[in-house]
TrEMBL record:
GO terms for biological process: glycolipid biosynthetic process. Keywords: Glycoprotein, Golgi apparatus, Membrane, Signal-anchor, Transferase, Transmembrane, Transmembrane helix. Belongs to the galactose-3-O-sulfotransferase family. It is a single-pass type II membrane protein. Coiled coil: none annotated. Its EC number is 2.8.2.-. It comes from the Eukaryota. GO terms for cellular component: Golgi membrane. This is Sulfotransferase. One of its GO terms (molecular function) is galactosylceramide sulfotransferase activity. It is found in: Golgi apparatus membrane. PANTHER family: GALACTOSE-3-O-SULFOTRANSFERASE, PUTATIVE-RELATED. It comes from Ectocarpus siliculosus. It is an enzyme of class 2 (transferase).
């Protein structure tokens, strides 16, 4: 399809979805996790909200139409799509009870908040977490990091394991990174985890899994009655050599789980025992949601891939398209582009 024809086709897909907004479901509180493809999911959701002229709010630090404190305080601005996280670099920052209270206070329909999140297999998650948040600071491989944790007399020990939270008073204390996935939900103990799984996780509208991301988007699309154009995405904030993170520090490749020494793998599993239980429960919820839409799943995945290919193929050969703001890897779509950014 020629460039102009493809542009018209893609813009038509957007227009058709926007015209169907009243028949689609939103009122989504997206519980952001880190190093799970959640920023990829967040940009997808944010783009939908802005294209459909909905009220979007997300965590402090990005330019946005509404930041969380304002959204909570101003009941005159009900939120259609919320994007927020409660933990940062693997350490506990907030509690799930506070999160739920905030969501119910600011969402357009507080009686039916559609909670959505992303979870990832804990060993791969721990590795990606370490190599994005900690390795650029420590300069240590994961094996060296664990070795140093057993040497409190080493002059490097204090600098690595006693870490001040940027902009916050107090210290994290001397400890290894542990259960970073649970930290996203304010879960610190097995009792808190059991309560969260029993009382909250089952109530999530959708739990996406990093390992089955496209398939999960297809389930989500059918569940919320969105269109394939709404599910198109780009991968952002990847942890790999040649890429810099938010502060300009260089990243390195994350070792594959299969290449880890047995003792390192064992220690990661020791440090992620709660995460393992949370992920197991998340997989169960995901499979339940997936089963509801099994009959259309193959067709829906294929439809998303077809439009995804069309979007990225068009953008590859049209460098001046305004839609690049929605599909580039540095999260530019948070910078308040117009509600419907044309191709």
């Amino acid at each position: 399809m020629a460039g102009n024809a493809m542009r018209e086709y893609l813009n038509l897909l957007v227009d058709e979805s926007v015209a169907a907004t009243k028949n689609q479901t939103c009122n989504i509180a997206f519980v952001k996790t880190h190093k799970t493809a959640s920023t990829t999911a967040a940009t997808l959701l944010y783009r939908y909200g802005k294209r459909h002229d909905l009220n979007v709010a997300h965590f402090h630090g990005h330019q946005s139409s509404i930041e969380l404190p304002e959204a909570i305080e101003d009941s005159g601005k009900p939120v259609d799509l919320m994007h927020y996280h409660h933990a940062w670099d693997g350490f506990y920052e907030g509690g799930w009870a506070e999160a739920k209270a905030a969501y119910k206070k600011i969402m357009r329909d507080p009686t039916k908040v559609n909670l959505v999140t992303v979870m990832r297999e804990p060993v791969a998650h721990y590795m990606s977490y370490y190599y994005y948040f900690l390795q650029p600071e420590t300069g240590l491989s994961i094996a060296e990091y664990f070795e140093l944790s057993a040497k409190p007399g080493d002059p490097r020990y204090r600098g690595v394991f006693q870490r001040r939270r940027a902009g916050k008073a107090g210290w994290h204390g001397f400890k290894l990174l542990h259960n970073p996935l649970c930290a996203e939900f304010g879960i610190r103990t097995a009792t808190e985890l059991e309560s969260f799984i029993r009382d909250d996780l089952q109530g999530f509208a959708m739990v996406l899994l990093t390992e089955h991301f496209e398939e999960g988007l297809a389930v989500f699309m059918r569940m919320f009655n969105w269109r394939p154009i709404d599910m198109t995405f780009c991968r952002v904030i990847e942890t790999k050599a040649g890429v810099s993170r938010y502060d300009g520090k260089k990243l390195t490749n994350v070792p594959k789980t299969r290449d880890l020494p047995p003792e390192v793998l064992a220690q990661i599993k020791q440090q992620t025992q709660l995460d393992q239980a949370l992920y197991k429960a998340a997989v169960k919820v995901y499979l339940q949601k997936r089963a509801e839409y099994q009959d259309s799943l193959e067709v829906d995945v294929r439809s998303i891939r077809t439009v995804q290919s069309a979007v990225h193929g068009y953008l590859e050969f049209n460098a001046k398209s305004p839609a690049h703001k929605w599909y580039e890897g540095d999260v530019k779509c948070f910078a308040n582009p117009s509600p419907v950014q044309p191709f």
